[in-house]
TrEMBL record:
Gene3D superfamilies: Cytochrome c-like domain, YVTN repeat-like/Quinoprotein amine dehydrogenase. WD repeats lie at residues 24-65, 107-137, 148-178, 269-310. This is C-type cytochrome. The keyword Transport applies. It holds the Pfam family Cytochrom_C. InterPro entries: Cyt_c-like_dom, Cyt_c-like_dom_sf, Cyt_c_1A/1B, WD40/YVTN_repeat-like_dom_sf, WD40_repeat_CS, WD40_repeat_dom_sf, WD40_rpt. SMART domains: WD40. Residues 323-424 form the Cytochrome c domain. The keyword Signal applies. Keywords: Electron transport, Heme, Iron, Metal-binding, Repeat, Signal, Transport, WD repeat. It comes from the Bacteria. It comes from Bosea rubneri.
Length: 425
């Protein structure tokens, strides 16, 4: 099946160029990463399908399908004069030059999935944030590495400051500003886990939070503003090159264009209602690319907020609608972006949960599990699933690809496993 899918994706590069595509189609899974070249001519996208695709934005056609990572591609960044870098679930960072089939360089120091990448203003250093609780700053010239430690959980975002230094954001609900000279970082704690982070040309920091808030800080860590975007986690973030507009996307598919000067939402982009995992502006700030759970890269007019071409405004049938009012189904909504319930829907970022009870860990068919899970002596029961969410995946199943999350309420855990027992048979 993998060979057939690879061949089908490869054919995209042979299609004749025509009018610019309204959507970029080709990935077999949710689009987790989007980056645009400095000249605005190319984009590189990464997906849970373990592939990266290099696109010609003028024609909307795929130039090359790139395969290297053993796992989802979570991050991508453009590098002037080289090409692009990708960061994967396998903990590796790959540098791609042109349309070469293999990476020009590979950095493999992380012990967990790479969640975010950032390039220094001078183009000399690449920062990578990882679920191994570290940030690594790598010299592109000689590979020398500086490791930043301090986060107590997955590090989900990283960005360079214009005057030197670095900022990182983590699941531990902290934003950390690391001085360029290696001094003690400034640490800000907020009320919710943090995902992506970006920095404006003037040094202002914007960070996306799990409580649906966009928070702004000065380069010294001083809190400046809090903007309510929605009530669900914000999971994608981008800023225009001139720093005037911030794009922020959420778990339910909303994308807000925020005017940084006025701290207001200028426009809301109406997509298909599915999670938006990645965002990137073109260099002139007039167009925005979004990648989501529908496996597409959508193109938006970043001035008017209008979709370029037709968009279906709804996600279609809500698989959980039939369970309205059931607490277990409501708890499961946070899991639905990565897991399906029926064999027909198959695997997503995580394996299908169909038939989970009584199944040994890491044995669901057709899914590439972390090597660390395959030797564990766990059989999924209502008790073991409940325990997973009581202590968290990192503690219960070390080495897992699963995002760190817990369910603090024993009643909610019980409602979830009771409901799963009913719907996954």
């Amino acid at each position: 099946m993998r060979t057939l899918w690879t061949a089908l994706l490869g054919l995209l590069a042979l299609l004749p160029a025509g009018a610019p595509a309204q959507e970029l189609r080709g990935h077999g899974g949710p689009v987790r990463a989007v980056a645009v070249s400095p000249d605005g001519r190319q984009a590189l996208t990464g997906s849970f399908d373990q592939s990266a695709i290099l696109w010609n934005l003028a024609s909307g056609s795929a130039e090359k399908v790139l395969r290297f990572h053993q796992g989802a591609i979570n991050a991508a960044v453009a590098i002037a004069g080289l090409g692009f870098a990708t960061g994967g679930e396998d903990g590796k960072v790959a540098l791609w030059q042109g349309a070469a089939a293999d990476p020009a360089k590979v950095f493999d120091g992380h012990k967990g999935p790479v969640a975010a990448l950032a390039l220094s203003p001078d183009g000399a250093q690449l920062a990578s944030a990882s679920w191994d609780e570290t940030v690594r700053i790598t010299s592109l010239a000689d590979g020398a590495v500086r490791v930043l430690e301090g986060h107590k959980g997955p590090v989900n975002g990283v960005a360079f400051l214009p005057g030197g230094g670095l900022v990182s954001s983590g699941y531990d609900a902290t934003l950390r500003i690391w001085p360029a000279d290696g001094g003690v970082p400034v640490v800000m704690t907020v009320p919710a886990p943090l995902n992506g982070v970006v920095v404006a040309p003037d040094g202002e920091i914007a960070v996306a939070a799990g409580d649906g808030r966009l928070r702004l800080f000065g380069a010294d860590g001083t809190g400046r503003a809090e903007i309510v975007i929605g009530e669900t986690p914000l999971i994608a973030l981008a800023i225009s090159a001139d720093g005037t507009t911030i794009a922020v996307g959420g778990l339910r598919g909303q994308v807000a264009l925020v005017e940084r000067r006025t701290r207001t939402i200028r426009a809301t982009l109406i997509g298909p209602g599915l999670p938006v995992w990645s965002l990137a502006f073109l260099p002139d700030g007039r167009e925005l690319l979004s990648g989501g759970a529908d496996r597409l890269v959508r193109r938006w007019n970043a001035v008017t907020g209008e979709h370029i071409g037709t968009v279906v405004p709804r996600a279609g049938e809500d698989a959980l609608a039939a369970f309205k009012g059931e607490r277990g189904a409501e708890v499961f909504r946070a899991c639905a972006a990565c897991h399906t319930l029926t064999p027909a829907d198959g695997n997503r970022a995580g394996p299908t949960l169909h038939g989970i009870f009584g199944r040994r860990i890491a044995t669901a068919p057709g899914y590439a599990f972390s090597a660390a899970l395959k030797d564990m002596d766990i059989v999924w029961t209502k008790e073991t699933v409940s325990r997973l969410f009581e202590v968290g995946p990192n503690a219960y199943t070390p080495g897992t690809k699963m995002p760190e999350q817990t369910i603090g309420s024993a009643a909610d855990r019980q409602a979830l496993v009771d409901w799963l027992e009913k719907v996954t048979r």
